[in-house]
Each structure stands twice: as C-alpha cells, then as structure tokens.
Amino acid sequence: MRRLGIALALVAASTAAQEARKSGAEFMSESTRAMQRDDTQNPAMLWVANGAALWETKAGKADRSCAACHGDAAGMRGVAARYPAFDRGAGRVITLGERINLCRTGKQQAPAFTPESAALLGLEAHVALQSRGLPLAPPADAATRAAAARGKELYGQRIGQLNLSCAQCHDDNWGRKLAGATIPQAHANAYPIYRLEWQGMGSLQRRLRNCMSGVRAQVPPLGAQELVDLEAWLALRAQGMPLETPGVRP
C-alpha cells in the first residue's frame, strides 16, 4: 500500500510539472494573443502564403516542385512536430529548415535557400502550419536524444561576459521582467514566429543567437551544431505541447 501511495504521488508530481509548463503565448498581452489566433490578423500568414506558392513552384535543374513529390501540403501533417530529427542521409540531427534545403539541393537540384531568407522561413512555416495543434513529438532514436542531451548541457552552461545560462532566466526566473519584457519558460512550440520587435519572421536559431548576443557571448553561425542541439533539447522540453506555428511574439 505504501509503494502504491509513493507511485501515485510521483504520477501526481509529474502531472503537476507537465501542467506547470506554459507556452510563450501565455506571457503575451491579450492583443498579441488575439493577433496570433486570428489568421486574418497574424502577419506571419504573409510568409505562409509565400511558402504555399513556393510549394507549388517548379525549381532547379529537375524542374520539380515540392508538390510533385509530396502532393498537397496537408499530407505533411505531423512532420514539423518531429523536428529536429536525425537524418540518415546527412548523418546528423537536422532542423526542418535544413530538411527543406536537402530536398531543394537533392531532389530539385536547385541552390539551397539562404538561412533566415523569406523563402525558407515561408516554406518552413507553411509545412509547420499543417501540424498546428498537434503535440510536439521529438524522435526517441539515440542520435536525436544525444543531440538533446548536448543541448541540455548547453542550456545550463553559463556563457558570455554576463556569465548567464539559459536556465537561469527561463527556469529560475520565468514570469519576471527583464528589460521590461516578461521572461517565458523557453518552450519553442511556435517557430518560425513573427516578432513585433523584428517587424518580420524569424527562426528559433535567430532567437537563440539574440539571447547569446544579449549575454555578450560568442554567437555561433546559423546552422551551427550547438544551435541544432539546443533546438533538440527545447523540442524535448516541450514534448506534448501543441504546435502553435506561426506564432506571434512581442
């Protein structure tokens, strides 16, 4: 009976921890949340529309579109919820944007999209939109979990001239104010997002690099493996939370 009581207590504690998780949307003003909820007001939908057009556009020496291989984009439902993920062809864990570029250079025989370009963000957001509302489900294979483990270590590592870690802000001080903005819990379930601060769309890696710059640390280039590892850890932290892409943030 005592063991059963302990087991029930552990389940209750785990459930409470899960329920304590909050999307970044919950730290926004009602007006910003309304902007994210309403596709006619969400400025990120402009990038999604661009991505939808690119999905149907033939490109490269192969003269093929995304739709030629994958059909209607609705068939991609669930895909974005699984990234970052180990890619056998690449031999490493990659992001959804990198997966799109691998299709671009391999299947379409076209030049890769530039990181943070409107085209890549648009296609990524269009694919992610198909999974909106689905729970994040990072793969459990050894390579992806190893990347997440490395990302977790980086998440807790103090860096930069300010000697701060991600965890100090987003685990120890979430809900408090930093430079007038509320610190969220670092659940990356809405990327790519439109940020009012940027007046444009951006990737999770852009956001991570902003934080690194903010603590005056050396900022890795877009696509660096440490950024992918951090993305893998953030996906695992948010496992089970619904995908909100395309999100809107202050």
Give an overview of the whole structure.
This protein has helices spanning 2-20, 30-37, 45-56, 66-70, 96-106, 118-129, 142-155, 166-170, 204-214, 225-237, and strands at residues 85-87, 92-94, 177-178, 181-182, 193-195, 200-202, 247-249. With 250 residues, the chain is mainly alpha-helical. β3 (177-178) and β4 (181-182) form a beta hairpin. The model is unreliable at 6-16 (pLDDT under 50).
Order of helices and strands: HHHHEEHHHHEEEEHHE
Q: What profile does the largest beta sheet have?
A: 3 strands, mixed
Strand count: 7
Distance between the termini: 51 Å
List the strand order in the largest sheet.
6-5-7
β-strand amount: 5-15%
Poorly predicted sequence stretches spanning 5 or more consecutive residues: 6-16
Instruction: Indicate the percent of residues in helices.
Output: 40-55%
Question: How would you describe this structure in keywords?
Answer:
10 helices, mainly alpha, 7 strands, three-stranded mixed beta sheet, 250 residues, globular, two-stranded antiparallel sheet
Structure at a glance:
By secondary structure, this protein is mainly alpha-helical. The protein is 44% helix and 8% strand. A hairpin with a 4-residue loop joins β1 and β2.
Ordered list of secondary-structure elements with their pairings:
Layout: H1 2-20, H2 30-37, H3 45-56, H4 66-70, E1 85-87, E2 92-94, H5 96-106, H6 118-129, H7 142-155, H8 166-170, E3 177-178, E4 181-182, E5 193-195, E6 200-202, H9 204-214, H10 225-237, E7 247-249
Parallel strand pairs: 5-7
Antiparallel strand pairs: 1-2, 3-4, 5-6
Helix pairs in contact: 3-6, 5-6, 7-10
Subcellular location: Periplasm
Protein name: L-cysteine S-thiosulfotransferase subunit SoxA
Keywords: Electron transport, Heme, Iron, Metal-binding, Periplasm, Signal, Transferase, Transport
